[in-house]
Amino acid sequence: MKVVLKNLTKKFPSRDKKSKAEVTAVDNFDFEIPSGMLIGLLGPSGCGKSTTLNMISGLEAPTSGRIFFGDEDVTDVAPENRGIGLVFQNYALYPHLTVHDNIIFPLQNLRGKDKLSKEEMDKRALEVAKLVQIEDYMERKPSELSGGQQQRVAIARALIKTPLVLLLDEPLSNLDARLRLQTREEIKRIQQKTGVTTIFVTHDQEEAMSISDLIVVMKDGKLQQIGKPQSVYDEPANFFVAKFLGTPAINTFEGEVKDGFLYIGKDKVLKADRLSDRKVFVGIRPEGFVIDEKGPFKCELKAVEVMGRDTSVVSTHEGMLSSSIRSIIASEDRPDANLKEISFSLKPSKVHLFDKETEERLLF
Amino acid sequence: MKKLKLKQLKGWLYLLPALLFLGFFMVYPLADVLVYSAEEGYNFASQSFFGYGLYNFKYVLRDPFFLQALKNTFIIVIITVPISTGLALLISLKLHSIKPLKEAFQTIYFLPYVTNTLAVGLVFMILFKKTAYSDGLINLLIKAFGGSAVDFIDGPYWAKLFVMCFYTIWVVMPFKILILTSALAGVNEDYYKAARIDGTRKFRIFYKITLPMISPMIFYLIITGFIGAFKAYSDEVAIFGTNLNAAGMNTIVGYVYDMLYGNSGGYPSYASAASLILFAIVFTITVINLLISKGNARA
Ligand SMILES: Nc1ncnc2c1ncn2[C@@H]1O[C@H](COP(=O)(O)OP(=O)(O)OP(=O)(O)O)[C@@H](O)[C@H]1O
Ligand SMILES: [Mg+2]
To answer: Using a CB cutoff of 8 Å and minimum separation of 24, what contacts does A72-79 make?
Structure first.
């Protein structure tokens, strides 16, 4: 099922007695989620991800704007009639019910002609339990399961009514690092098997990048960019998106375009003849550095960290905005750690320029 | 090995003050009560007795005043514990669901708890007592609706019992409401959100989610409620005065007190026997309660 958000806005009344200003949690959202895709809704804490999800689920009414599932306007439809499944950050499994009873809870609410027999419920419960691979734990209480297993029970409960849209609010944040990796693959697998349109909230960019078909980046309630993970990474729409995506993070500098060239500090690093003279922000991905004795970008070497396959070179430069520059290079090119200076040439595709005022990306 | 012993010793040393205190104020009196209750024909003046036996228990169990007190206590327990807990649950649910003026309402409901029992007793006097000048507020109401006045303080047994239960419920409710509202506030909002997404009906949400979530607190209130009601005494005094036997409104604790210090006082053996009977009753009921709550938790 395709999900369309049209000018979706949510304002909360101010809690602060002194200032009357409303909090705009979601600001004029306008985008379309194609049917059957796994969407990562990504942004820093407090940017309005949960609010967006709650509006799609119907738990929260939008201040203005419309929500469509397919061609149907569901803005005023009650949550239970929208055909959604929701998985909460803390799973919200009923602790006094067994896994089986938790999973069939939504089915037991059905009334009238939708009412199911006990056998039918058990059959369906077993089907979803098999899908998420928890069929061996049906008689346990949630407290007798590991975090990852609880997570899967929560997904099973969300899936049992075969929803049109599956919504997950930070489903992995309560898991340890290893389980997170496993469970996100699991979510991807379940999504692909069921083909249900899935919206997945996270503030972990790596998580979003690794499993999403599309990622939606937001900040302060505003949509920043929507696109395939790789293209958002390669062509960030603005300085914020560039800084938000990627581990290690992009290196940021202040620079200047003069006479068709980009300068960082005194170093004339790249040709930029499509831009007129101006001051800019520069972002260089860690993998955009190539060690080159004659390279134009001269840094002070601070440390060389070997991380197996790759080597991480830490250096400083007068134009940088962060406290150090981190570049990733292949281990065979590892520089001598005793050097004072190191020179790089830069891969143009890994260098991004941003307007100093609007922070929008500039093509050079 | 040696270190462990030393550590244990240290632990006991730290516990010593508390143990001494408990021993002196809890264990010793308890043992004393046991001894007293078995001493037959104890004479307070000469501090002598005939021998050991169960005579004191026999006496107490045949004493019409004790039987009356037993009956009163049981009626108070059976009526007030379920009603006060049920009402408190209802009020807490309503309090939990309202948004504006929530704090104000919570304060109002909690006020009786911090009000002195005797002051509340006075208010009840005004409400219920017949004097030369007035029949009491409730009687005015009854008459306004065409009924005839009832003397709630010195009148028929059922009227007195009614006032007594009314009063007890009134006094114990605030604490229960406080506990239950905080228990309700402690239920994670996400459970209700999940239930809404699934289209769960209100009653089912209450029965399947809210109630199980707060059931430990409800059991706590029922157990402490039983214990508290079995130990009722001061509330009776606040309404009917100190001569509870004459009013026919005595309770077991009241009977114990009378045996010790009342007009007919000076019978520590009977008092001890009566208090041990009370202990046996409270103990049995609490064990039953705990068994039920454990069974419930497992189901
Ligand atoms: N009920 C509410 N009343 C007032 N303000 C709210 C309410 N809910 C959220 N907000 C505000 O709206 C903004 C967005 O909140 P939201 O919960 O959607 O953030 P989020 O992106 O999910 O953050 P996180 O990653 O921390 O979960 C925040 O500034 C928050 O303070
Ligand atoms: Mg959130």
So the answer is: A78/B199, A79/B196, A79/B197, A79/B199
